[in-house]
Structure formats: structure tokens, C-alpha cells
Amino acid sequence: MARLSITMMFFLILVVTSAYVPSFAVEETEPKKLWDQCVVKISPNCALDIISQVFGNGVVSIPCCQELVKEGKECHDTLIKYIADRPTLIANETKYLQKRDELWAQCVSVSKSI
């Protein structure tokens, strides 16, 4: 198994904590809908693959693409934007949002071809 970087470990903790302990993950100003309706729609493994591709050099599998499309664009956009807005990542937010959109287009294309 490849060694996880500190950033990837941070994302793992964020995703798992957000999915199972929403009160720790959601700031008071954020809509509770984000956590109640979006985070729980995708498996933890696929969430990590998606985060790895958007914020690193990972690759999302076809089954995870299908989960992503099923989750919906609004959820995908909102969750990635939330992560990209973290203080340690905000400097590269434009790059991450572009990768988010590219991943969405890739997954829609893959899902339609199956």
C-alpha cells in the first residue's frame, strides 16, 4: 500500500469524520444539507479516490465514477469546494475546481458509455 501524505491523511480524516460525526465537520454557517444529503451518498473508498484525483494524482475507477454521477453534480461541486476552501488549500482553489469539473465530465462520459 502506498504511503499516504499528510494532506491525504487530512482528507481521509475530514471525509470519515464528516460522514459519521457531522457535528464535528460542519461549521454553523454551512448548510446542514451538505452533510445530511451529500457525504453519505458515496462510499468512503470512492470519496478517497475522488479526493486523490482532484487534490493529487490519483485515478477514479469506473465504479466510483458511477457513484459520483449518482451522487449528483451539486453534491460533488459543493463538497470539493468545501475542501478546496480550507486555509491550507485556498491558494490553489482554481486548479482544484478545474480538476473537479474535469473529473465530473470524465465520469459522466464513462457512465453514459456503460
Quick summary of this structure?
This is Prolamin-like domain-containing protein. This protein has 114 residues and is mainly alpha-helical.
Structural class: mainly alpha
Helix content class? over 70%
Please write the string of helix (H) and strand (E) elements: HHHHHHH
Mean pLDDT: 79
Q: Give the low-pLDDT segments.
A: 19-26
Q: Which overall shape is indicated by the principal axes computed on the Cα atoms?
A: globular
Q: Could you give the count of β-strands? A: 0
Number of helical segments? Answer: 7
- Roughly what fraction of the amino acids lie in strands? under 5%
Main beta sheet, described? none
Distance between the termini: 29 Å
> Any idea what the radius of gyration is?
13 Å
Whole-number count of domains: 1
What does this structure look like?
With 114 residues, the chain is mainly alpha-helical. It has one domain (29-112). It is 71% helix and 0% strand. The chain contains seven helices and no strands. The longest helix has 21 residues, at 93-113. The chain is globular, with a radius of gyration of 13 Å. It starts with 5 loop residues before the first helix and ends with a helix. The model is unreliable at 19-26 (pLDDT under 50).
